[in-house]
């Protein structure tokens, strides 16, 4: 049965459809994830990351929304792979929903088995924040990418990316943040994407400055901007391999080199070279095996070109999309000579419980986020990098869907900020409640040996107890909704991760929940890194009072 795809948009304003704001906030956030301004392909319920969905299918989505409309304040909705499968009486301080998306028993946790089950309509790929309803468009990743580029600048170029050129590929849901993040960090930027529409979307949202007509024009312009020390970004319609081969052929070397094509999914994401996008799409349907074979060959060529540029001096890092693994499996023995971005740039922050904290104005009013921006600067203005980000975000970030803000805050900061916001809601300084959440890519919520937990000091990369403990702890603390997913960022079987979202509705109950959740949630990150032997995490635990148990 086909039906016209409905158009999704979260309700705005102060009157609510659901029993209370805790439930209403969830009702708005599911729909916000599918707002055409936010989602990559709303008709197929795909939010980002190739195939990350907000609900299993349209019927399941209707079921979730209907359940939320009737859910009582002491009930909890169960969501199994994007479909509501039950409602249970719990209590008012418990989560209003618990979600598990795409989890498979270890030996079955492969793309083949996942796709077989997906064909049968039994599972959904939730990515990280698609199936847990806290995706906020490209802004979420702009800040993470900015943190990463800025950290690379500090590590390799004496603190500044001015006059440096960053080359990458993939300008999709996440990768589209790269041009803006790089220019905010002072660099010039050049990226290929096979899909013209994706590049045009980034031009419309002002994340990208210019779409070049050819690879040669793109390279000329990017290197000219580098020479002028101009923070300027250039996109070009091309396969990543074509762009890198052209750069190699001209004997040029970028300063920074990475990639954000959807290489976590060799069938529905990554696009083989040597054919048009239309031909690739046709092959995907007609002969999936052949498609995957060609995609894996392309990934191998792609990583070989990256390695060649790395050997010529480009600072090269993997950006968490599983490209190295695919290339290694296709015969590139030295693919892992390219380091992952987490051990290089992010882990030191994880040791402090810092991670991608974010919040959304359920009112739909930009003024609410403007007030929270002021509050961040009042409370944390002494942190220069954070203040630079908030000021730049205010000017350069166009909201997508409900107005939202992200900034990395650490242990001891998150709960203080959320409590202060809860107070603003209580006093009526904000039009409606604020939703607080985070990416699953956070300090204590993910096991992902090719990304967040790559090369842990004690070798505990694949230990997945931590995200499970994280989810259980957040349920115990009374987050508004808590989720456990398989495969986000790197693909089925390669990661397990958990998320939480907590609503600041201005009530004393919300304040208690906020305090519990937003100490425990980053606290487990400090504990995880302290347990793995990171001295910085042990110091933070001592200084800020994270109880690591024992004597
Ligand atoms: P997406 O599917 O929205 O976009 C991927 C883009 O890559 C598309 O525009 C596609 O046209 C393009 N593409 C695919 N193959 C290509 C090729 N060979 N050459 C040039 N362009 C090609 O995915 P996304 O949400 O942007 O995520 C990108 C990748 O980054 C995913 O693998 C995702 O899992 C990973 N990711 C990383 C992080 C992180 O923190 N570093 C976070 C989330 C996701």
Oligomer: single chain
Q: What is the fourth-level CATH superfamily of the largest domain?
A: Urocanase superfamily
Structural class: alpha/beta
Helical run tally? 18
Q: Based on DSSP secondary structure assignment, what is the total number of beta strands?
A: 17
Question: Mind telling me the CATH class of the largest domain?
Answer: Alpha Beta
Q: What's the number of structural domains?
A: 2
**CATH fold-level name of the largest domain:** Urocanase fold
Q: Provide the list of bound ligands, each named once.
A: nicotinamide-adenine-dinucleotide
The helix content is 40-55%
CATH architecture of the largest domain: 3-Layer(aba) Sandwich
Largest sheet: 9 strands, mixed
Alpha-carbon distance between the two ends? 63 Å
Shape: globular
Poorly predicted sequence stretches spanning 5 or more consecutive residues? none
Strand content: 5-15%
Rg, alpha carbons: 22 Å
| Overall residue-averaged pLDDT value | 95
How would you describe what is shown here?
The protein has 551 residues and is α/β, with parallel strands linked by helices. It folds into two domains: 15-136 and 353-546, Urocanase fold (3-Layer(aba) Sandwich); 161-339, Urocanase like domains (Rossmann fold). It contains 18 helices and 17 strands. It has helices at residues 21-33, 58-70, 111-119, 139-156, 178-184, 196-204, 215-227, 240-249, 277-286, 288-311, 323-329, 341-350, 366-380, 384-396, 414-426, 465-477, 508-531, 535-544, and strands at residues 46-48, 52-53, 75-80, 83-89, 97-101, 165-169, 188-193, 210-212, 233-237, 256-257, 315-316, 355-361, 404-409, 434-438, 446-447, 481-486, 496-504. Strands 3, 4, 5, 12, 13, 14, 15, 16 and 17 form a nine-stranded mixed sheet that branches. Strands 8-9-7-6-10-11 form a six-stranded parallel sheet, sandwiched between helices. Strands 1-2 form a two-stranded antiparallel ribbon. A hairpin with a 2-residue loop joins strand 3 and strand 4. Helix 4 crosses helix 5 (178-184) and helix 9 crosses helix 10. The radius of gyration is 22 Å and the shape is globular. The chain starts with 20 loop residues before the first helix and ends in a 7-residue tail after the last helix. The model has no long low-confidence stretch (mean pLDDT 95). The structure holds nicotinamide-adenine-dinucleotide.
């Amino acid at each position: 049965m086909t039906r016209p795809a409905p158009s999704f948009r979260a309700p705005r304003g102060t009157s609510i459809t659901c029993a209370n704001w805790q439930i209403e906030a969830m009702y708005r956030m599911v729909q916000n994830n599918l707002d055409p301004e936010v989602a990559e392909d709303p008709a197929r319920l795909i939010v980002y990351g190739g195939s990350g969905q907000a609900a299993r299918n349209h019927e399941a989505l209707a079921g979730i929304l209907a359940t939320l409309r009737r859910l009582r304040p002491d009930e909890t909705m169960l969501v199994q792979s994007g479909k509501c499968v039950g409602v249970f009486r719990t209590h008012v301080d418990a989560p209003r929903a618990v979600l598990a998306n795409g989890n498979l028993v270890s030996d079955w946790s492969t793309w083949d088995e996942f796709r077989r089950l997906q064909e049968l309509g039994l599972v959904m790929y939730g990515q990280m924040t698609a199936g847990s309803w806290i995706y906020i468009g490209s802004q979420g990743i702009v800040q993470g990418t900015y943190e990463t580029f800025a950290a690379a600048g500090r590590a390799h170029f004496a603190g500044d990316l001015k006059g440096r050129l960053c080359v990458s590929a993939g300008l999709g849901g996440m990768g589209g943040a790269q041009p803006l993040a790089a220019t905010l960090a002072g660099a010039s930027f050049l990226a290929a994407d096979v899909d013209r529409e994706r590049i045009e979307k980034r031009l419309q949202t002002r994340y990208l400055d210019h779409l070049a007509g050819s690879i040669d024009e793109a390279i000329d312009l990017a290197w000219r901007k580098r020479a002028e020390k101009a923070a300027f970004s250039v996109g070009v319609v091309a396969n990543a391999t074509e762009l890198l081969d052209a750069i190699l052929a001209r004997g040029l070397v970028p300063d920074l080199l990475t990639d954000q094509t959807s290489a976590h999914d060799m069938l529905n994401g990554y696009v083989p070279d040597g054919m048009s996008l239309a031909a690739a799409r046709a092959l995907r349907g007609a002969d999936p095996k052949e498609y995957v074979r060609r995609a894996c060959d392309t990934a191998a060529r792609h990583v070989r070109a990256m390695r060649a540029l790395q050997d010529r001096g480009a600072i090269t890092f993997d950006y968490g999309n599983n490209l190295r693994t695919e290339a290694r499996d296709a015969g590139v023995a030295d693919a892992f000579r390219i380091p992952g971005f987490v051990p290089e740039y992010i882990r030191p922050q994880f040791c402090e419980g810092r991670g991608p904290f974010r919040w959304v104005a359920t009112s739909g009013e930009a003024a609410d986020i403007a007030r929270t921006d002021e509050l961040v600067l009042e409370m944390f203005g002494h942190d220069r990098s954070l203040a630079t980000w908030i000021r730049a975000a205010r000017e350069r970030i166009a909201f997508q869907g409900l107005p939202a803000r992200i900034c990395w805050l650490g242990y001891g900061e998150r709960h203080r900020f959320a409590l202060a916001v809860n107070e603003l809601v209580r006093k009526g300084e904000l039009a409606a409640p604020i939703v607080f959440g985070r990416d699953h890519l956070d300090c204590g919520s993910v096991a992902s040996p090719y990304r967040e937990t790559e090369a842990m000091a004690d070798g505990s990369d694949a230990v997945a107890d931590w995200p499970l403990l994280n989810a259980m702890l957040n349920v115990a603390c009374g987050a508004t909704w808590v989720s456990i997913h398989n495969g986000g960022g790197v693909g089925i079987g390669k990661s397990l991760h958990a998320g939480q979202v907590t609503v600041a509705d201005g009530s004393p109950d919300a304040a208690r929940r906020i305090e519990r959740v937003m100490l425990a949630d980053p606290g487990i990150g400090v504990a995880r890194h302290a347990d793995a032997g990171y001295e910085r995490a042990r110091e933070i635990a001592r200084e800020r009072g994270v109880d690591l148990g024992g004597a």
